[in-house]
Amino acid sequence: MNIEYLRASTAGTYQDCPWKYFLIYVVGFPSLPNKKAELGTICHHVLELLAKAKKNGYTEYNINKRTDPEYLLKICWKRYTDKNPQFNYDENDYKFCQDQVKAVIESRFDPLALKILKTEHQFEIEANIEGFEYQHKDYKTGEDRSGNMLIRGTIDLITEIAPDTIEIIDYKTGIRNDWVTGVPKD
Question: For the segment 4-23, what is each residue's pLDDT rounded down to a tens digit?
């Protein structure tokens, strides 16, 4: 398999099932969403919008639509549930999202209480270490390719906690278990 970059999601997919990895990331078959992942995406989007509001100077909840978590949840809920009606979302799913957003707001990760530097920051780092080299013929173009793998990702939130210290935050809404063993991943 011709692999030139890694993301946590691609590495996890490969670890769970190399065939699935091949179909999605090499052949290009679309990966279908699942209900739990979509609920996480809804929560994540609400928190992202709150963090962007803070970055734009808003520091108090419910002073306008930008800082009203319930309003933002309704907007995100409609967007994602309309896109995937096959999941038959119900009031328990909505309550789950409310509870997840509330838990973050009531924690030390409250977006309006943080000094936000960046939201949804994408990065790419070349892995210049032994074992991360590749050399192959591109099966689509026939071109010979070589180099070092890239590590790519998206950081949900970067905050400053002191002048010389940043914090990287990755929102999670559920337990991540190994697809094969069922054992929680840390």
Answer: 777 877 888 888 888 988 88
Classify 102 as helix, strand or coil. Answer: helix
Residues 97, 39 contacting (CB under 8 angstroms): yes
Q: The dihedral of CA 100, 105, 110, 111: what is its sign?
A: positive
Q: What is the pLDDT of residue 1?
A: 62
| Distance in angstroms (rounded) separating the CA atoms of residues 7 and 154 | 9
pTM for this structure?
Answer: 0.80
- The DSSP code sequence of 8-65 is HHHHHHHHH-HHHHIIIIII-PPPPP-HHHHHHHHHHHHHHHHHHHHHTT--STTSSG
CB neighbour burial string for 142-180, b if at least 16 within 10 angstroms, e if fewer: eeeeeebbebeeeebbbbeeeeeeeeebebebeeeeeee
